[in-house]
Amino acid sequence: xxxxxxxxxxxxxxxxxxxxxxxxxxxxxxxxxxxxxxxxxxxxxxxxxxxxxxxxxxxxxxxxxxxxxxxxxxxxxxxxxxxxxxxxxxxxxxxxxxxxxxxxxxxxxxxxxxxxxxxxxxxxxxxxxxxxxxxxxxxxxxxxxxxxxxxxxxxxxxxxxxxxxxxxxxxxxxxxxxxxxxxxxxxxxxxxxxxxxxxxxxxxxxxxxxxxxxxxxxxxxxxxxxxxxxxxxxxxxxxxxxxxxxxxxxxxxxxxxxxxxxxxxxxxxxxxxxxxxxxxxxxxxxxxxxxxxxxxxxxxxxxxxxxxxxxxxxxxxxxxxxxxxxxxxxxxxxxxxxxxxxxxxxxxxxxxxxxxxxxxxxxxxxxxxxxxxxxxxxxxxxxxxxxxxxxxxxxxxxxxxxxxxxxxxxxxxxxxxxxxxxxxxxxxxxxxxxxxxxxxxxxxxxxxxxxxxxxxxxxxxxxxxxxxxxxxxxxxxxxxxxxxxxxxxxxxxxxxxxxxxxxxxxxxxxxxxxxxxxxxxxxxxxxxxxxxxxxxxxxxxxxxxxxxxxxxxxxxxxxxxxxxxxxxxxxxxxxxxxxxxxxxxxxxxxxxxxxxxxxxxxxxxxxxxxxxxxxxxxxxxxxxxxxxxxxxxxxxxxxxxxxxxxxxxxxxxxxxxxxxxxxxxxxxxxxxxxxxxxxxxxxxxxxxxxxxxxxxxxxxxxxxxxxxxxxxxxxxxxxxxxxxxxxxxxxxxxxxxxxxxxxxxxxxxxxxxxxxxxxxxxxxxxxxxxxxxxxxxxxxxxxxxxxxxxxxxxxxxxxxxxxxxxxxxxxxxxxxxxxxxxxxxxxxxxxxxxxxxxxxxxxxxxxxxxxxxxxxxxxxxxxxxxxxxxxxxxxxxxxxxxxxxxxxxxx
Amino acid sequence: xxxxxxxxxxxxxxxxxxxxxxxxxxxxxxxxxxxxxxxxxxxxxxxxxxxxxxxxxxxxxxxxxxxxxxxxxxxxxxxxxxxxxxxxxxxxxxxxxxxxxxxxxxxx
Lengths: 891, 108
Prior knowledge:
The structure holds two protein chains of two kinds. By secondary structure, chain A is mainly alpha-helical. Chain A is built from 35 helices and seven strands. A five-stranded mixed sheet of chain A has the order 2-4-5-7-6, with helices on one face. In chain A, strands 1-3 form a two-stranded antiparallel ribbon. In chain A, β6 (870-873) and β7 (881-886) form a beta hairpin. Chain B has a domain at 10-78.
């Protein structure tokens, strides 16, 4: 076949794809593209899972390993039919949070962490670059098949690297044109998706056509093919249980985590209707894609010469049979598979690179902020375009330097294992609120490192890892052998790396999540993700009315484009009941705007941009927490103040009490002065009167004696009063010297009772004592002590108002010392007077009693102080009760 | 929109829907089990690759068929195919999208 025809057909096909993409974009912008969002287009766009590696490679895989190739399709089938488990949630979160890529998902879930965004982006770039190289290789290989057939006069040369370069450059142009046409609100690319849907149809039709040709055109029907299968070398394949299960799991996990799959599955998704249809339609697509793989392999092995590359049977079988048209169709199918994968992968990677690496760097260099610096929209677009170029250049360089061949063919599964490291952080983030940023980072880094060490780097052959190192481990450490960790041998390298990397990844993810504490934003996002069905609306907490609506509009125009931003602002203003373009910057509006922007530049960047405009006054959750902390501190401070004011008012109360006491004392003193002057004057008056009578001599003998004795009595009373006053003054001045003697308490009490009874005034008093208890020897001033006792007993005699006065003297030993209680059966002392009775000059009654100047208890208290003891009034004993306490050391 | 037309069957419909969702959740588990079933007999006498392939493709197609039937049944619900009667506010995002889609001149 003339390769010029091939080139022409290819160019026409490419031009057709350009037209389709262009038309779809135009229709979408004109608002007439409802069918572009149909579930069928969505399902077909998922077909980028079937790359050239599967289009050509599945047959080669089947030729080498029998039915094992099917595991690569079984995993995605299970994920799709199980959409209710994971995909429904993933898609809902993707829409609610305006997720733009896998890296954005992880970064957004773990508190909009840019670190995680960078890690996942790096992982994705490293894992995808070889895969892009693989696609370039498949295109050049398939072209080479035709050029080998060709006589050599055509345009196609055998210069494979040049072909690869042309393909890469062409793909870059296409991707830049349709992948970065605009920063769509949700990163949806209708042109690209539609072109990919067309390519999906082409590759399915091509593979089915070749399959039908092989089964019914070459082999005479299905029954014959079944016989041929069992007769062919393929029938000798052995089912390896470990590989079978591991590869099924691997393909299922990769289906969720591959950047390009995430792009079409989540980012380009419009509603759950699409997903529901794709849940059966995409497995059906995969089913049809793999239906004829084994027959093609079997027939290829039987018909084509020994040593033919089974990876190219899809192409070489029709060629060998002379069906050039069919071969052309197969070529276009393979070409479609390769290009659609590369285009979507480049879009997904460039989104990640620009949102998580370029934009954060640019923002940090431009401290002025998004509102004052240049056109953000242009910066983002340029970053995307450059990233696409860089990604494709990486792919091309990888292809050049790996040299193609077998090493590259194995890269498919290796790439899968690399990107699957995202799985624990992804699923943990979706279903477990306890997952933290630290855990995710630890798991990702460890998984990435193990993958690189155990699978990726060894795939470069002996150039990096010497054979002896692979056999005995680094520096002879056996348990670190890259393909036999801990000495466990026998696993296939892919299975070995998959198991160890994911086990250690998950273990670190869980361990570090358990021991670390998430930031407030992380916890908020965690709740938003895990409970997405309970509250789909994002809450981020901007302070209201701080960001200027105009600044926000300027920034939004730069990112979303003028018309869209204005429409958004106008609609929001209208929703708030305002006319014009500037809505109030309510938290709801800021939240909505941030989400819209995050559809273009990623959650973390959008948050930072709105934050820059909202300025320091914008309240993030962190700020809120800080405010809460401050409030807590203020609460503590005010409670301290409260305690202090409590103390102050307590002191004030004490002062008031003291003041009252002083006032009372002053009143009493005045009262006493008048009392004492009365007391002094009364005897003085009698003395003066009777002495005048005596001086006049007008009285007889007995009367004279009587008057003289009255004068003497009054003089004695005066003397006693003056003695008391003097005694008290001496005691208070501390000039008294104690005359310490030894006596029993009983003896002292006997003396006091006798002395008190001898007094003429007062009523008879019944005194009850327990003499056995009184047998305590005292070492003290017994005269002074008995003075105290006399005073108390005399008081009881004087003031006890009971019909039959009775005084109980009760002695006990307590911790405070020797306690002597004097309890009478009278009315006692009123509570308001208790504080006063020990004061000088205090007297409770106006009753005038001989010698009762109100000094007795005051003197008693001074004496007890001197003796080291106390005297106190004991309330609540049914009468007046005094407690005298003596230190036990003295007793 | 069921409306007041047959309120008495509302509880019953919710119940049916929950069971459909349960069935939906079971499909991948059954699939995983059936796909891994051949492992149980591995290592014994060699089996026909054609027969093994036939078994796999039959199971595969069965899964697709069941998923198709269940999705068709789920799609009849008023809340849409992805709604779960146990989840509050299932319409929240749909509503969210509507308000967001309004101002943008182009479709999403």
